[in-house]
Every structure is written in structure tokens, then in C-alpha cells.
Amino acid sequence: MQEKIKALAKKYFSEFVEVRHHLHAHPELSYQEFETSKFVQGKLKEFGIPFTVIAITGVVGIIEGKNPNKRIVALRADMDALPIKEENDIPYKSKNDGVMHACGHDVHTTCLLGAAKILNELKAEWEGTVKLIFQPGEEKNPGGASLMIRDGVLENPKPQSIYALHVNTILEVGELSFRSGKVMASADEIYITIKGKGGHAASPHITIDPILISSHLIIALQQLISRNNNPFNPSVLSITSFNAGNTTNVIPNEVKLMGTFRAMDETWRFKAHELMHQLTSNLVQSMGGEADLHIDVGYPCVMNNEKVTAEAMSLASDFMGAENVSETELRMGAEDFGYYAQQIPACFYRLGTMNKAKGITAGVHTPVFNIDETAIEIGMGMMAWLGSSAKS
Question: Which listed residue, of 67, 114, 276, 371, carries a Cα 20 to 30 Å from 158's Cα?
């Protein structure tokens, strides 16, 4: 089976490079993936794979092998792009100005489509059912995964496990990486409004200065995280926006702050929310101001199931060679795949796309992101191998 999958991945490689070029040239923002969804649907029709559409633009395909109830495995890809203006000089550069596949979701969708074609062609030779999940909105709250789950993607039939790959721009092409347990952080958006009493900057004694209050609050929030969290439990609070005033001699009435809070532990995550609310209210009031803190609760941590991940690593070693399989580093970035991992055993792994020799080293979420496209052959082959062989 492994050799047949590799042969088909090689055979169809050029075809799916063109698929990736089409997707890259026609990116769509989160929850607006209408043409992308139609393209995916068209490809599944072409391959003879039945599918349904849920969560408006989400697509769910089903491939049944022999004994379809024996094992049910889900494979997931995300389809949305980012609000970034592409700066690459390539024939398949984004045609949608200000929108770019800068996080590799075009690669993810391509690899899953390629795996789907391979699995469907070989379905008489493997047992079980593979559910193909093409989801919208990974880049924006509330996360397309949550909407797909809400609309029943993990039911009828319910997968026993789920797998997803993600491009890794610091891992050489030809390599894969995995990690059990904590993989990526939760992500919550922080919005704070500090209200004071504005006035002339030369008379601060008759004002309540929200800029000074906000400055104290930012420092206090940093201390709250570092002094209350176990230092062996990764957590990050970053205030990334400070908006107030518009001239030199006027103290404004209010300040607006924005930021992000990341954690690797769900218990600490929500304890920190409580502490931030308490601190913000008490500190601002003690300085004469008023505070409104809103925490937009985002994606949960990504937790890889130990058994499922161990099996996936073993299958990857068989497929790629053990020397090409490594452990993924912890990352404070976030992924809505964490929602799936809360429901069923999951494995989120990394596909190497960097090629230093070719100068392909740009990171994700940059206007010059690109990949060594030989990763597509590896990505689609590995997904097909997991789909046909994973037992967990």
C-alpha cells in the first residue's frame, strides 16, 4: 500500500502543483471562501467522491474502503487566506489585491485534495472510512472548526481520530515533525477601555489622566502573568495597541488598549481571565478612572493525543524514514484545530517547506511567504498513508 501511495503521489504531483497555484492565485478571507469551496467541490465531483456542504463554505467528503465501519479517520485542511498584500514575483501571485495565502492554507487544501484522489483510487485496498474536512475561517474567531463541529462534522459517522498538517517554514522540505500533548497555545483577544477626565496638559491636577493610568495597568498586567503563573507553564500577554489623544497639549478622556493572551493550560487560562478583570477594575478605580475589559475567548490549546500521535510518528517513519521525522517545538501560536482535539483523539503535525539552498526561507504571515513545492508530493502522500493505515 505504501509503495502504491508513493507512486500515485509522484504521478499526480504536477497536477496538484497546478491546484496549489490556482488556490494561491485566488485567495479568500475567512468566512468568504465561496469560490474556494466551489473549487474543492468541483474537484471532489471530478474524483467521484460524495460530499456535503456545511457551515456555509465548509465541505465534507466521504471515502469508504472495504469494511467501512471498521475504522473511521478524519483528515482536515483549512481554506482561508490572510489580509496581506503579496510581494512575491511569481506567475501565480494573488489576483485578489490585499489578500494572500500567507499561512499555507492553499498547501493544506491541495494536500488533502491530493490525498483524497489517491485514497479514492485505492479504496478497494484499505479498510474503513476516511472523512475529508475542508473548513473555513481558521484565521478568525470564532474559528471555522467550531462552526463545523456545531453543524455535525464529527457525527454520522463519528471519526475515531483526526489528523491535520501545517506548513513549517523552519523545517527543511522532506521532513515531518510531531509532538504529543501540548502543541500550540490558546488565544484570547483583549480589549480594554480606560475612561478618565480630559483637560489641558498643563493642568494635569484637574484631570484624571487615562494615559498615565493605562501605563500603570500595562505594567501591572505583565507582572500579574509573570508572578501568578508557574514559569514552567508557558503563557504570554502582549498589549499590542495603545490608542489615545491626537495632539500635544490635551489629555484625552479615554484610552483604548488591545492585545492577546496565550496559554498552554486551560485551568490557568481562565484563572488568568479572572485575575485580569480584578486587577484592571481595582487599579483603574484606585487612580480615579473607570475601566471596561472585554476578553474575546478564542481557540483552545491544541493537545495532541499521545496514542494517536505515537502511531502517526511511527507511520511517518515508515513512510519517510526515521531520520526525517523529528519532534515539533512548542509554539505560542494558536490553531482552531484545538476544537477538534477537545472532542476526539487528534494529531496536528508539521510539513517541512523550507529550502535554504533555493532561498525559500520566508516565514508564514509575511508578504513573501512561499514553499518548496516538492512538499506537496510528500504532504498528499503522507495524508493518504495516514488515512489508509492509522488504526487509533
Answer: 114
Contacts of 264 (CB under 8 A, 6+ apart): 182, 185, 186, 233, 234, 235, 301, 330, 332
Domain boundaries, the chain: 2-184+301-389, 186-296
Q: pTM of the predicted model, to two decimals?
A: 0.94
User: Residue 28 catalytic?
Assistant: no
**Beta strand segments in 264-361, E:** 290-296, 302-304, 325-327, 346-354
Catalytic residue among 139, 335, 373, 377: 373
Peptide bond into 142 cis (omega under 30): yes
pLDDT of 300 higher than 90: yes
Q: Which of 12, 92, 163, 299 is catalytic?
A: 299
- Is residue 12 annotated as a catalytic residue, yes or no? no
Q: Nearest Cα to 164, choosing from 206, 192, 131, 197?
A: 131
CA 95 to chain centre: 23
**How confident is the model over 326-353, as pLDDT tens digits?**
999 999 999 999 999 999 999 999 999 9
- Regarding the domain delimited by 2-184+301-389, which CATH topology (the fold level of the hierarchy) does it fall under? Aminopeptidase (3.40.630)
Could you tell me where the beta strands, DSSP code E, fall in 68-223? Answer: 72-78, 129-135, 161-172, 176-178, 181-184, 186-195, 199-200
> In terms of Cα–Cα distance, which of 189, 151, 389 is closest to 276?
189
Q: Which CATH architecture has domain 186-296?
A: 2-Layer Sandwich (3.30)
**Which of 72-76, 308-312, 388-392 comes out lowest in average pLDDT?**
388-392
